[in-house]
Amino acid sequence: MATLSTSKQSSTDNSTDPLTLIDVDHVRFFVGNAKQSAFFYASAFGFQVDQISDLTTGNRESAQYLLTQGNIRIILETPLSHKHPASEEIKLHGDGIKDVAFTVFDAEKAWERATKNGGKSAYEPRTYKDATGTITTAGIQTYGRLIHSFVSRTGGYDLPKLKQGGLFAPGYRKVENYGLNAFNLQRPCGLKFVDHCVGNVEMGKMNYWVKWYEEVMGFAMFKHFDDKDIATDFSALMSKVMASGNHLIKMPINEPADGKRKSQIQEYLEWHNMTPGIQHLALRTDDELTSVAELRTRGVDFLAIPETYYETVWKRVDAMLTSHGHHAVKEDHQRVRDLGILVDSDDEGYLLQLFTKPLQDRPTLFFEIICRRGSQSFGKGNFKALFEALESEQDRRGNL
Predict the structure, then answer these.
(1) Domain that holds residue 158
(2) What is the distance between the alpha carbons of residues 286 and 277, in angstroms, rounded to a whole number?
(3) What is the pTM of this model?
């Protein structure tokens, strides 16, 4: 039987900075129907439906499904009554991301430091324990609906055991005989971990949240793109990429910029009840072509890239690579074109990327599938082609 306490958890942390982030512990989605959402993400993206916490495990508040693939952990949570706070959020925003949670050495100390730095508490430290071990969580509010939970783990719930298939937390049980799990092991999609999480905020608020991540979380600016970098003839945005001290966690922040028509950021905000939030998760793969091919076979709907893009991309990309002493793109060029994959390069190497269409009926959250061959950037050379593809979809929706 799991118990909840607010007593302090002992720490074996030797780190001097309580805000040292170890990993993306999990990403929590609020969804209207977790059972059906779990089937969608398992079927379309190859996730294992690994664990569940619901009425059958004694959870009377919500149903929670843990989905795993590589080092990606997604919690899909559905409220079981109107009193649960997720009920109101789903009504206002639809399905989307509520929490990007970070593993730390001591969740209570991380929360104390973040609130001392000026952060607003989302919820105070709480410890769940049973015979297997303990998990302590505490939350801090960031932009819009989003929170960051700090998570520290001991015993059978520690991070190494979790990565090896251990239980997520007290009150969860393993899912047995889920048919898609065996199929997905035989037909893997190859998604490894969360590369970055992109947030959309209101016009004029990007620098506010940049400062917040610097002062509250101890992040630093990693990249900066302005409306000259990310623009078409009709719309534009500005973006600053914030990174944790070890560059393990990257959180780009977008805001709309003035343009002749409505930007994708403004469209997101208008269909998200004018509330900032996570626009997309970028999921890393070691083999873009194999992953995208498998996802397309499963019916994943990706943005359509204009054919004219491939008339100039190889000259641009290869020129950058050779000028910095790197080998040319090793992936088959025709296969890249057939799969509609975007390619970009910088002084460190190249990357391949592709973006899904929105994952739900509201044009809000989507995924990016990304493979890095040295490049640590975000596809600056692809921004124009990407925006034109996004604008085409906005136009079809009547939102441009």
Answers:
(1) 3-186
(2) 28
(3) 0.91
